[in-house]
Design a protein that fits this description.
3 copies of one chain form a homotrimer.
Chain A (H helix, E strand, L loop, with lengths): L1 H35 L3 H5 L2 E9 L3 E4 L1 H9 L1 H4 L6 E3 L3 E6 L2 E14 L2 E17 L2 E11 L3 H8 L5
Parallel strand pairs in A: 1-7
Antiparallel strand pairs in A: 1-2, 3-5, 4-5, 5-6, 6-7
Chain lengths: ~160, ~160, ~160
Amino acid sequence: MDELQKRLSALEARLRAVEDELALYRLMTSYGPAADSGDGAKASEIWTEDGVYDADGPGVMSGRGAIVAMLSEEGHQSMVPGCAHLNHPVVIELDGDRATAVGYSQVWRTDDGKHRVFRLAANRWEFARTDEGWRVVRRTNRRLDTAPAREILRSTPRQ
Amino acid sequence: MDELQKRLSALEARLRAVEDELALYRLMTSYGPAADSGDGAKASEIWTEDGVYDADGPGVMSGRGAIVAMLSEEGHQSMVPGCAHLNHPVVIELDGDRATAVGYSQVWRTDDGKHRVFRLAANRWEFARTDEGWRVVRRTNRRLDTAPAREILRSTPRQ
Amino acid sequence: MDELQKRLSALEARLRAVEDELALYRLMTSYGPAADSGDGAKASEIWTEDGVYDADGPGVMSGRGAIVAMLSEEGHQSMVPGCAHLNHPVVIELDGDRATAVGYSQVWRTDDGKHRVFRLAANRWEFARTDEGWRVVRRTNRRLDTAPAREILRSTPRQ
């Protein structure tokens, strides 16, 4: 019986890790549809209330309010509809109630019916498990052709 | 013993949800390689026999036969080889034997060795678990720079 | 009790398949951040020591050393920083301690601040479970607008 209990507990822990990884994929991915449909509040809610989005265009945004403000600006809103924020692909690393991910983001926009990539960047994501589920504590985004982007990509864990 | 049975049943249900999510990713992803290698029949088989593909170019296609017909047209075949239908990234939501997904699709084509994006779209997918496994009941595809695309993206569930 | 043991063993096998699929996604995805940050050794380590990378530009590279050499060449290094090797999306098929995947790869580069796709290709991946974890035994990469690419895409398993 003890043996069965142990196997069950091991399975539960492993399954939780798998569920966490899929939940984190969904969390990152869900930023795009919210931002691209002009719903800044929903987009900001993938962060914790005081989460940080450090992007080398708009700078360091602390807290959901600052992220909503950036997404409400004319520069962002003028792309809607027609833009696509694609946070893929990424490599996730779990550590209990914390997690990190490293990967790419693409911002597409459409002008006069023509699609083009506007921005490619490297991203480092830090997550915490909260009462609301997994949330972003800090996202760092650097344009791909910069030294900081290279440092972010270098921090991807060996598989 | 009862306790163990309960934990096992809970694990089985959670694991099935994880397997379902991965199966749905594979199902959506497999559309591309079939369409891009000119195998319309295989591409159509991700739908149920009477599944619907509602795309704002070719219109509403009802049933696998209509989807095969669209993929057999000169407009599609002239892109093969050289096109890439990428159904990513998406956010999946399970509900027992039904599921939905919301996300992006990209169609790339290659002309004279040059790649370009031909179409970016928002997609809403509705799935059913069938005897053949998960199948698409309805896929709605709208060009990214349209109001309906925005509505599709807005329907992404909060994570 | 026997019944419980059986259910547990079945769960363990299914969970292992799910973990394998996610590990293979991470493995393929991790090629990009290594290659794009100029760390050829790390990029080569997703292969087995004598793994093969057969790409229709640089040709057949046998063993990690040959892959490091290709990534050290001026042609590759001149793209760093600013390039993105995106190995997505793919469909994975498991077979015990072996696995295959079929999908797409994109190579982006940035010149004078402008991003463009440099190469779209079809990929077939063959994996083995090793003491180091899953590793690539052979990766075959063909430009999307070629007949071999079409054959690769055709080999995607029906879902």
